[in-house]
Every structure is written in structure tokens, then in C-alpha cells.
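Following up on my earlier thread - several people asked me to post the actual chain instead of describing it. Fair enough. Here it is, all 123 residues.
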Amino acid sequence: MDTYQRSGLYPVAHLPSGLGSEGAGVVEAVGPGVTTFQPGDRIAYGTGPLGAYAEHHVLPAAHLVRLPDAIGFEQAAAIMLKGLTVQYLFRQTHVLQAGDTVLFHAAAGGVGLLACQWAKALG
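Reply from S.P.:
Thanks for posting it. Predicted structure:
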């Protein structure tokens, strides 16, 4: 999506704006009332507002997920929207359960790879 926004294929709604919708990093500070995260926490996100290309980015705490130490920042930043897409498909479009049959055309792409791994993990 970031590539499409940079090329102009997907217009950016609110300009001027930074670019980049997926990112990962370390929390530097939290706002009043935020209890789910604290400075030093490793996080990732895959939703707006845009600005992931910036060195610092202010986001609502509800847009963040805690990032396990075993997952690097680069990997997390590259996979968040794909993971959200698979979550939507397997948890909202059709609740996938063990024993279900799944067919993915183009399973070599980011969404397809994640979907196949997720489906296999479910059994």
C-alpha cells in the first residue's frame, strides 16, 4: 500500500502528510490514561494515521500491538497489514476452524503465505 501511495495510485487523503502505514519500534512516551503500554515496550502497527516513514510517530494506543522479542522490527513492519487482512478473512469473513479446507490462489504473496501458515496452525 505504501508503494501505491508513493506512486499516486492510491491518493493520500489528508495532505500534507507523512507516508507509511506500517511500522514497528519502541514506545518513547505515553499519553495520559494509557495503561496498556509504557516507555521501552516493543510495538508494531498497521493502521493510520500515516507517518511510519518518520523517525517519531504519534499513534492511538488502540492501534498498537505488543511485539515479541523474537520478531524483528523490519519483519513486523512489513507484515502488519497482511496479518490484519488474514485476521479479517479467518475471523470475520469466515471463522476458520480445524478441519476446514482452504484454497488460496497466489499463495506465494504476503497474504497467501501468512494465510497458509495460519490455516496449517489451526489444523
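The domain at 2-122 is CATH 3.90.180.10 (Quinone Oxidoreductase; Chain A, domain 1). That should answer part of your original question.
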